[in-house]
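Input (structure):
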């Protein structure tokens, strides 16, 4: 269950404050995913890079276990270091495509865009352009 919540939280973190606006006024604007689909490839890469840099605290170009997001404890519960470590490992496993136990900007951009835009892993791996990029 925590892994599902972390996956959802991770996608929510992609949208940063934009996502908060979606929750506050869901009908007033298109969702972050819809806005992402409307972005040019350059705008999309810039937005995903900005979000990646929020996680990459030491600016070494990778998100490591120490930097990976974690779920906060449930109200009234103490912080559980073992659960937090599992959250971090799960986040890394979502994005780490070369099994080096860290996430590069390239890995993050590809996987985040694929998850948000509904691209299949095979399309992403083949470098297939998004439908709106084919114009």
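Output (sequence):
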């Amino acid at each position: 269950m925590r892994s599902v919540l972390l996956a959802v939280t991770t996608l929510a973190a992609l949208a940063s404050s934009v996502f908060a606006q979606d929750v506050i006024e869901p009908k007033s604007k298109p969702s972050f995913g819809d806005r992402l689909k409307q972005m040019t490839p350059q705008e999309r890469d810039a937005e995903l890079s900005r979000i990646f840099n929020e996680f990459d605290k030491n600016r070494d170009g990778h998100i490591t276990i120490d930097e990976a997001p974690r779920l906060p404890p449930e109200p009234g519960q103490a912080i559980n270091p073992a659960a937090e470590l599992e959250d971090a490992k799960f986040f890394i496993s979502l994005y780490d495509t070369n099994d080096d136990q860290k996430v590069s900007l390239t890995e993050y951009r590809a996987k985040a865009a694929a998850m948000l835009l509904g691209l299949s892993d095979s399309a992403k791996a083949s470098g297939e352009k998004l439908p709106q990029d084919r114009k």
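Notes: Residues 89 and 121 are 20 Å apart (CA to CA). The helical segments are 2-24, 32-38, 41-55, 81-95, 105-117, 121-126.
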